[in-house]
Amino acid sequence: MAGTNLQQQAYETIRKQIIYSELAPGSRISDKVLEEQLAIGRTPIREALIQLRNQELIKTIPQSGTFVSKIDIRSASLALYTREKLENPILQECSAKMTPQDQLILEDILEQTDHAITTQDKKLFFYLDKAFHRTCYKVAEKSEIWNWIESYSTHLDRFRWLRLSITELGWGRVLDEHQTLLQSMIDHNLDEVSFLCSMHMHMIIEEQEYVRQAYPDYFEKD
């Protein structure tokens, strides 16, 4: 059990480092450095790397070494497409099932998001952006679907993280859209919920070129 826990701890830590570009796309990975950095033994580290390799987040090149995979924009686009198709009906269910307590939780997430913008806390903002959607799925009693989407959205998450580093794109638009979406769900305005859901997803498509131009070496070639 202890070995399994260490392997999962190593996996989650390295995966986050990849998402946050702390392990930059294309950079070389050293088992030994990871062992020292995480204070975890060789076997759990290697098992974690196997899991990450199976998810195509790292790749091994014979006689060269192990490297962080570059961001696959096609994989990110497929994750976005899947999420858009599933999220619209789920947000409508969220609107129908939302209790006053659920509303307070979502409003609190948005207040914290506003604070994260004020303090320029990028990791907190990133977490709260996902927390808003995760909570909507929970209210709709579809948490399992959220977990499934999350498992296939790592390249999309990597893209979204880089987006937060581009000053021109700002963070306020995300908060504004979440606030408007929440109000539409409270008002049971399902047409508006559907429109806002689609617009929110397409924002990422609109911003794709900004991110790729800012980080050209971080993406797989088309």
Task: Describe this protein's structure.
With 222 residues, the protein is mainly alpha-helical. It has helices at 2-19, 31-38, 42-54, 73-97, 100-119, 122-139, 143-151, 154-163, 172-186, 190-206, 208-214, and strands at 28-29, 58-61, 65-68. The protein has 2 domains: 4-66, Winged helix-like DNA-binding domain superfamily/Winged helix DNA-binding domain (Arc Repressor Mutant, subunit A), CATH 1.10.10; 71-213, GntR ligand-binding domain-like (Four Helix Bundle (Hemerythrin (Met), subunit A)). The protein contains 11 helices and 3 strands, in the order H-E-H-H-E-E-H-H-H-H-H-H-H-H. The termini are far apart.
Major sheet, described briefly? 3 strands, antiparallel
CATH topology of the largest domain: Four Helix Bundle (Hemerythrin (Met), subunit A)
Low-confidence stretches: none
As a percent range, the share of strand residues is: under 5%
In CATH terms, the superfamily of the largest domain is GntR ligand-binding domain-like
Q: What's the CATH class label of the largest domain? A: Mainly Alpha
Measured between the Cα atoms of the first and last residue, the distance is: 42 Å
Order of helices and strands: HEHHEEHHHHHHHH
> What is the count of structural domains?
2
Which secondary-structure class do the elements indicate? mainly alpha
CATH 2nd-level architecture of the largest domain: Up-down Bundle
| Portion in helices | over 70%
